[in-house]
Structures are given as C-alpha cells and as structure tokens.
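dude i think i finally got it to work??
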Amino acid sequence: MQKVLAYLNSKNKKRQPAKHWNEEQITRQAEKMYGQVVENLYGKLQYSSES
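look at this
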C-alpha cells in the first residue's frame, strides 16, 4: 500500500496545481488500485488451482 501511495503522490506532484488531488482522493485511488491487484491475484490463483 505504501508503494501505491508513493506512486500516486509523485504522480500528483506532476499535475497542474488546479488539478491536484487532495489526500482523500489519493487514498481512495490507492485503495481502488490495491483492490484491483488483490482481485487479479485471486483470479490467477483460482484459475491455477482449477487446472
């Protein structure tokens, strides 16, 4: 989770000042990305166990 937050914060610094995300938006996006990774991993594990 820390890597995702670091990535999103660095990406946020590159945005125009008017389009910067606040901490709540960054946290929400980090949780969304983390959820996608977990779902992807679960799907791959589930697929490999069925084979």
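The mean pLDDT is 93.
im so relieved honestly
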